[in-house]
What does this fold into?
Amino acid sequence: MRSLLRLYRFLRPYRVRAAVALMLLLVMVTADLVIPHLTQRVIDQGIVPKNLYVIITTALYMVGAAILSASVALINNYLSVSVAMGFAADLRSALMRKVQSFSFANLDTLQTGKLIVRSTSDVNMVQVVVMLSLRILTRAPIWAVGAIVLLIFTSPRLALIMAVAVPLIVVLVWFFARKARTMFLLMQQRLDRLNIVLQENLAGMRVVKAFVRTAHEMARFGEANEELMNRTIQASQLMAVFIPFMLLILNLAIVSAVWIGGRMATAGQMTVGEVVAAINYLSFALFPILMLAGMLGPLAAADASARRILEVLDAEPEVGKPRQAATFAHPKGRIVFENVSFSYRGNSTEPVLSDVSFSAEPGETVAILGATGSGKSTLIHLIPRFYDVTSGRITFDGIDVRDLDIHLLRSAIGVALQEAVLFSGTVRDNIRYGHPAATDEEVMAAARAAQADEFIAELPKGYDTVIGQRGVTLSGGQRQRIAIARALLVKPKVLILDDSTSALDIETEVRLQEALDRLIADSKNATTRFIVAQRISTVLLADRILLLDQGRINAVGTHRQLLASNTMYRDIYRSQLGEPPDGEAGDHG
It folds into this structure.
């Protein structure tokens, strides 16, 4: 239960309400425990001697105790729900803040489906236990202890029944608790798997239909669904066996109390009222224990969920903040790679980049070309510290990017990633996502530079048109242009275009490059550009082309230089554009 207890720190803002709820429990338990004593009084002093006044007055006390217990229970329930809901909201917010601090490396490990389950199902599991802690889980032990004390005062001999029943219950709880915790952890893991399959299926629905893979996806979902069902059934079967055993112990204890108490009453060693009160106290002592045992399932599930939540909260971002962050007042955009190597998850045996060195001066356009898997995207992801280098260093205006304030670093960089991710909302909101205070004129200027203004004007409400989730109502090229406009709007000193023009036609791409050249020509807004491309036509006019081959720089130069001197570059050119014009191919030997 240590995992669950560690999350109780999120109760601190609600400790006053929680304390009041717990104090109300004491009042409620006191009111409940006085009723068996009043029952004894009714029998021994009212019914047996036929004293109507005692019967009526005692009955009124019993009604008052019941009303007090019910009233206090209502207030306790309100406070418990309020505390539990606030706790869950704060826990979800903490998870969200933690996820926002993660680097790409963390997100590679904690997949989206897993994070969704932890923020929803797992938090709900813990929330239920928090609410029950302020009600049943706290009330039951107090109730049981109070009942045992009163049982001892009423009949020490009948109290010995507890000495037999309680050890049996403890052994059963210990045995089933060990089994239940493992089962509920496995159940939540199967729920993870189901959510991952479901998310992939929904996100890729168009691909599924295009390739007629509905049957395959249904089978994959069915397998994950059946695994979750089987684990849930196993956990339910465990509890289905556990509860009857507990009820059997409770009923045997009550039967024993009736038998022993009846013999004692017949022998004149106890009054009938004392026997009835003792049986009630025995029930009051054992029934809360039974209630706690019934909570074994939710407790085990919540503890398993707490472990999974703490897995996220305890995870350290792979990209850490520097102890004393350096800053720059007027960034220029000079980027230098110095003997940079990189491996995912520190796997030095399979480096993605090896000994990469080059520089990009302010205002230059550096294109990165290479085969699929050569490390192009990984290289540019290192500049804004989506990942940290394994060895070597990258400097921004002479400062190691690991020493820079990460927010300052990224605010100086505009990024249009390989997948143009848009959010539900208007076109205008998506463009100014990175600069919410931008004016309408600035938004439209960025859209014009990204060659997006024409198609935006044709949308039903122009810039106020609401686009669907992830921009599904737009074409791939339209999404890319909005993503580029979003990157341009922040007026970055370094602009990274990660194959973000792949869905554009050649004419639109040429106009986009010309517009970017005009922006860079303005010395006040000189922007260093990194362009990752698959199409060689995209990089022809770059100031420098980096040709990557299996994570290493094969060659560096302009288009004409590489075409004249590099066989690999010429092969790429021929495969896409045919034979180079006479005079450009240089010496092939």
Observations:
- DSSP finds 20 helices and twelve strands in the chain.
- The radius of gyration is 35 Å.
